[in-house]
Each structure stands twice: as C-alpha cells, then as structure tokens.
Amino acid sequence: MKRGMRPLQGVSPRTSLRRVNVVFDVSGKLYPLDEQAATVTGESLRRKAAGQLGDEGVEGARAVADEIERVLVGMSSEPIQLARERADAVYYVLNVSVRPNDPEEADALALYVAVREIHDERLRRG
Q1: DSSP 3-state assignment of 43?
Q2: DSSP character for 17?
Q3: Which regions of the chain are under pLDDT 70?
Q4: What is the pLDDT of residues 23-34, one digit of tens each?
Q5: Is the pTM higher than 0.90?
Q6: What's the rounded Cα separation, in Å, for the pair 122 and 37?
Q7: Which of 9, 36, 46, 49 could form a disulfide with 61 if both were Cys (CB 3.0 to 4.6 A apart)?
Q8: Alpha-carbon gap, residue 2 to 107, rounded angstroms
Q9: pLDDT, position 17
C-alpha cells in the first residue's frame, strides 16, 4: 500500500516476516522505505562515502549506510535519524535517483522532499 507523500506516524520497521521497512526520522516525522529501495539507497550511500558519486554529501553517508544495513540484517529496528550532514548525504543520493512521476517511488520521494528541506535550510544559513 502506497502512502503518497505524507510522513507516517507509528510505522513499524517490520511489515511481515519477509518484508522490512527501513524507517527514517526527519525532524520528528517518519518516512519508510521498503527493503529494495533501502538497499539501493544504502549501496549508493556507500559509493557516495567512497567519493565515487561526487564530493557533495560525503560526510554522513557512511554512517547512514551502516544504519540501513543494521536494520536490513535485523540488528536494529530503530528509525534512522537524519539531520545535518546525514540528511545532506541522503539528499544528494536521492536527488539523482528518485523519479518524481513514478508511483512506485512515492515513499522515496516523500523522504527526498523532507531531506531537501533540511538541505535548503542549511544553504540559506550558510
């Protein structure tokens, strides 16, 4: 079931025994990504941390990728906090990967919009 562009409250990281949601906390609002989207995002963040996807958003990328992996392998079920550099890392990864008109990516788009707000605010503040 797609949730559109609204953050979710009370989202469980496990939707069934086989499906895992990775939940991100952005400014107190929860945004889930399904297992496949989270895996792709985590892999892209690892590449970002290694400098393979440009210099912007490198700081914070490894930490978020590690937390995504911990949720995916069942070592954690806590929402992943995204603020400052960590939000920027996710912003730069999703900025080039999210397809806004694809209904299958509604959750990733909602997360992107949330981290973009943090990114834009950081730019305004200098």
Answers
A1: helix
A2: S
A3: 1-19
A4: 999 999 999 999
A5: no
A6: 26
A7: 49
A8: 7
A9: 46
* Pairwise CA distance, residues 100 & 122, whole Å: 23
Contact 98, 109 (CB under 8 A): yes
For the chain, the straight-line distance linking the first and the last C-alpha, in angstroms and rounded, comes to 39
Q: Which residues pair with 31 in a beta bridge?
A: 24
CA 59 to chain centre: 15
**Helix, strand, coil shares, percent, the chain, to 5:** 50, 15, 35
Which two three-digit tokens encode residue 89?
A: 């890392």
Spatial neighbors of 94 by CB under 8 A, at least 6 apart, are: 41, 108, 111, 112, 115
Cα pseudo-dihedral 58, 94, 45, 16, rounded to 10: 150
